[in-house]
Specification:
- 50% of the residues lie in helices and 11% in strands.
- By secondary structure, the protein is α+β, with helices and mostly antiparallel strands.
- It has 3 domains: 31-177, Roll (Ubiquitin-like (UB roll)), CATH 3.10.20; 186-580, Glutamine synthetase/guanido kinase, catalytic domain (Creatine Kinase, Chain A, domain 2, 2-Layer Sandwich), CATH 3.30.590; 594-726, Up-down Bundle (Four Helix Bundle (Hemerythrin (Met), subunit A)), CATH 1.20.120.
- Strands 9, 10, 11, 12, 13, 14, 15, 16 and 17 form a 9-stranded mixed beta sheet that branches. Strands 1, 2, 5, 6, 7 and 8 form a 6-stranded mixed beta sheet that branches. Strands 3-4 form a two-stranded antiparallel ribbon.
- A hairpin with a 5-residue loop joins β3 (105-107) and β4.
- The structure holds adenosine-5'-diphosphate and magnesium ion.
- The site of magnesium ion (MG) has 3 residues, from loops.
- Magnesium ion (MG) binds next to loops.
């Protein structure tokens, strides 16, 4: 083992478990650092409190004078908790979170100072934010962007800073973040779903989307992680031969959690409790050093904020434990990558989960209505849903022979398939009394409250029904959940609106009973959306062929997938629902294709550097040792040396071949990069990076990895897979 690698591994032994102080009961500290309803009751006047609650429940505006009261209360609360600063906390299109801290502290001019935080500072800020991605919406002469308070997501204290969740929009009102479109989509799906839910219960006045994400990640010792330039700069290994042992024994999955890791998790969960992030589940994942964390689901906007916050907290807590968190979707070749399952459903303000079967036929008809509409929505907009999870890093998972394929399909399990098959036979038009009884008793009435069929079994499906919610499994581990959630809410809103129109027409024009009308429309939807339903193996080649026959999209790369974002169909959808304008959509597309090209560009540079500065020089060093050896043998044996130096000669030859191939690969790749960089059009540039530059990665890597196997372990400088994945 090289001294470099040895000292990195040596360092991991110095990283002992950090002691974690935990309360006896977590419930005692839950939300302690959140300006929660309880805290608001304590620190706000009755009127201010009501004003915030109305803003949360009804979306009503908060009066400026009231905002002053609220900010004062919030400040007092924050200071009582040790906060010295405040920040608007938002999610620009970089995918990360952004913050700029200001002190409460202000001088009064007479040598004194006070703590101040006015309503204006709470409600709106104008960060000099010209360096955030904006896709051309903000010209540099109009670089102003506004952050505006989102009262539906409570303020919280992290460290000594009061963080106020905000949206981020341009001076002219266009969304520059992930939250704004999400909030708009939540409003539209509320409206559409409430109207449909009223068929079943007149008391429903609001429907909100729920989200429970499951965050997968790798945890690598800091010393090992920073010993790899690729992990450091690209977040993933760009080369490295597979370890002799990988995940084939499945001995990591659900295994006992290593002590150091467990201490990290406990520390992290502690922080989450204080911040009101309801994390509940932790376990080892399939790949070595891969783990998962999942919360109790929440209202979608809050859940999205909590996931963004969590990722930030995970990094910070990891520092204390000398770990690096890898959020990348594919940090290591040959073993599983990471995703972020998004469990999604709709819930009413009367406390009903609309995707949960009930105890009566009527409740089940409601369930079926929302269930079938979801399937239909995904059928209509599968390409947009695929686009919403596209990124350079997620391309390594989707369609690359592991967890969810790039083809979007819906898995519902055998029990519900039977129910839909029965419903498909419903008579066209009015239902006879017998048929109705039959339906209610034997089809709808038969759906058990708890679906026994373990729908979770088909892990290859990107969008699976799991008993009382749909689970979008194709989301990347690095992604901001707001993006796919916006799409799901939007397509569902559109679908439910159409559904209601069709049902109402049948009731009004055809004089049908409500149930008959609903059955009739659902029957048509079942027939129409059949092609999106797939119960088989989503990884197989057979499915690719079958899906193509069914007319489903199979966009394997990000530039290809993102086209659906700017299609006429998407623009119409978003404009109709007032979620985004054409300008906003096109700006977003531009940002994403640009980001894609830069991502591949960085990876290409890092790979080129490592291959030329680490791999080739090391290979030459080893080759020189071999040459010396051969020379020596020649000295001893004269012309008969070949008999003794056969292996060495072959090695010398192989090393030369690999070095030549690597050099050629890098040179050609750089040429393609140069060509790509000259392309002005951002989308075309992304395609060039995808189709012309990226293919060299595999080729270069192949030869580097071969050299890793040939070269003396004593001098190989890069920490190997077995060391990265099995040391802790
Ligand atoms: P698993 O998928 O590991 O079997 P569960 O099915 O219990 O685990 O839950 C996974 C995630 O789904 C959790 O975060 C949970 O809170 C969330 N979840 C459960 N019900 C809902 C719902 N109605 N809406 C959204 N998320 C939900
Ligand atoms: Mg799950």
């Amino acid at each position: 083992m090289s001294t470099l690698r040895f000292s990195a591994i040596q360092e991991t032994f110095d990283h002992k478990p950090v002691a974690v102080k935990e309360p006896k009961r977590r419930s005692e500290i839950f939300g302690a650092n959140v300006f929660s309803e309880n805290a608001m009751r304590q620190y706000l006047t009755k009127d201010s409190f009501k004003s915030v609650m109305d803003a949360i429940d009804k979306g009503s505006k908060i009066d400026r004078a009231v905002a002053d009261h609220i900010s004062t209360g919030m400040k007092e609360w924050a200071i009582s908790k040790g906060a010295t600063h405040y920040t608007h906390w938002f999610q620009p299109l970089t995918g990360a979170t952004a913050e700029k801290h200001d002190a409460f502290f202000e001088t009064t001019g007479n040598g004194h100072a006070i703590e101040k935080f006015g309503g204006g500072q709470l409600v709106q800020q104008e960060p000099d934010a010209s360096s955030f991605p904006h896709g051309g919406i903000r010209n540099t002469f109009e670089a102003r962007g506004y952050t505006a308070w989102d009262p539906t997501s409570p303020a919280f204290i992290y460290g000594t800073t009061l963080c106020i969740p905000t949206i981020f929009v341009s001076y002219t009102g266009e969304a520059l973040d992930n939250k704004t479109p999400l909030l708009r989509s939540l409003q539209t799906v509320d409206k559409a779903a409430t109207a449909v839910a009223k068929y079943f219960d007149k008391n429903v006045t609001k429907v909100h989307a729920t989200l429970g994400w499951e965050q997968e990640y790798f945890l690598i010792d800091t010393a090992l992680a920073i010993s790899r330039p690729d992990l450091l700069l690209a977040g993933r290994t760009l080369l490295g031969h597979a370890a002799a042992k990988g995940q084939q024994l499945d001995d990591h999955y659900f295994g006992s959690i290593p002590t150091r890791v467990l201490n990290y998790m406990r520390d992290l969960e502690n922080e989450c409790m204080l911040l009101g992030v309801p994390v509940k589940t932790r376990h080892n994942e399939v790949a070595p050093n891969q783990f998962e964390l999942a919360p109790i689901f929440e209202e979608a906007n809050l859940a999205v904020d909590h996931n963004s916050l969590l990722m930030d907290v995970m990094d910070k807590v990891a520092d204390r434990h000398n770990f690096r968190v890898l959020f990348h979707e594919k940090p290591f070749a040959g073993i599983n990558g990471s995703g972020k399952h998004n469990n999604w459903s709709l819930a009413t303000d009367t406390g009903v989960n609309l995707l949960s079967p009930g105890s009566t036929p009527m409740k089940n008809l409601q369930f079926l209505t929302f269930f079938i509409n979801t399937i239909k929505a995904v059928y209509e907009y599968e390409e947009l849903l695929r686009a919403s999870i596209a990124s350079a890093s997620n391309d390594h998972r989707l369609g690359a022979n592991e967890a969810p394929p790039a083809i979007i399909s819906v898995f519902i399990g055998s029990q519900l398939t039977e129910v839909l098959d029965e419903l498909e036979k419903v008579t066209n038009g009015k239902l006879s009394p017998q048929e109705k009884t039959e339906l209610k008793l034997n089809v709808v009435g038969k759906i058990p409250e708890i679906l026994l069929d373990n729908t979770d079994r088909n892990r290859t499906s990107p969008f699976a029904f799991t008993g009382n919610k749909f689970e979008l499994r194709a989301v990347g581990s690095m992604a901001n959940c707001a993006v796919p959630m916006t799409v799901l809410n939007a397509i569902m809103a559109q679908q439910l609106t159409e559904f209601k129109e069709s049902v109402d027409v049948l009731i009004k024009d055809k004089k049908m009973k409500k149930d008959d009308a609903i059955f009739n429309v659902l029957r048509e939807y079942i027939k129409k959306s059949k092609n999106i339903r797939f119960e088989g193996d989503g990884y197989g080649e057979a499915w690719e062929k079958e899906a193509a026959k069914r007319g489903l999209s199979n966009n394997k790369t990000t530039p290809e997938a993102l086209k659906a974002y700017v299609s006429k169909k998407t623009i119409k959808l978003y404009e109709d629902l007032q979620i985004m304008t054409k300008v906003e959509i096109e700006a977003r597309h531009e940002i994403q294709v640009e980001e894609y090209a830069m991502h591949i560009q960085i990876e290409g540079r890092v790979l080129g550097d490592i291959a030329r500065n680490h791999v080739i020089p090391t290979a030459i060093r080893y080759q020189n040792i071999l040459i010396e050896n051969v020379q020596g043998l020649k000295d001893i044996y004269g012309n008969a040396f070949k008999k003794h130096a056969g292996e060495q000669m072959q090695l010398i030859e192989s090393i030369s071949v690999h070095i030549a191939e690597i050099n050629k690969g890098i040179t050609d790749m750089i040429n393609e990069r140069k060509k790509a960089n000259k392309i002005d059009d951002a989308e075309k540039r992304a395609f060039a990076y995808c189709d012309k530059v990226k293919p060299y990665f595999e080729e270069i890597r192949y030869h580097c990895d071969k050299l890793e196997l040939l070269v003396d372990d004593e001098i190989w400088p890069l920490t190997k897979y077995r060391e990265l994945l099995f040391t802790r």
